Amino acid sequence: MAANYNKTAWFYDSLARLVFGSALKNSQKHLLPLVPKNARILIVGGGTGQTLEDLAALQYEGLHITFIEISANMTALARKRNVGNNEVVFIVEAIEQVQLKSEFDVVITGFLFDNYADADLPVTFNHINSVLKPGGLWLNTDFQLTGKWWQPLLLKSMYTFFRMFSPIPVSNLPEVDKVFVLKRYKAIASATFYGDFILTRAYKKSH
C-alpha cells in the first residue's frame, strides 16, 4: 500500500515547485495529448489534482474520470480544480482496496510506484492492470536513476524528508519498467525531465 501524504498536502505543491521548478508538472502533462476523446480514465494517486486541470485544458468535456487518492486532504484540494465539463468521481482509498470494473481506456499514475518495494509492486500493478482494457493506454511518470551522482542523494533526501510525516516502507526505487515488460506492455512514447531524473512513459496494453 502506498504512503499517505495527508500531513504534507498543504505544502506539497509548493515544495515540489521549490525543488523541481516546473519539471514535475510538465512531466505529468507531457503525454496527455495521447488520451483519446471521450475516454474513460483511471487516475491512481492523483495527489492535489493538477492532472485534472491539465486534461480539461486539452479536452474540456467528454472525459469520464475516476480519481483515486488515499489522502483525504489531497483529495479535498483536487476537488477544487477546474475539471471543465468532464465527469469526475473521487474515491478516497488505497487503490488496492477499491473494486472497479474492467472498463478504462486510460490509466494515469504519477509518482505512485516510488512508494512501493519490488516485492509489493506486482500486487498493486496487477490490480490496476485488471481494469485497463486490452489495447488501453497507461501513462506512468516517476523518478529514475540514470547514473548521475546527485540523483541517489536527492532521492534519499526526499525519502528521508517525507518519512518524517508518513511511514514510507521503501528507500529505493522499484524496477517498474520490468513489470510493464513482463505484462507485455509496449512503450510507445517517453520523455525525461530534470536531468533525466524524471521519466514519463506511455505504454500500450497488449490485446
From TrEMBL:
It comes from the Bacteria. Residues 41-136 form the Methyltransferase domain. It holds the Pfam family Methyltransf_25. This is Methyltransferase domain-containing protein. It comes from Mucilaginibacter defluvii.
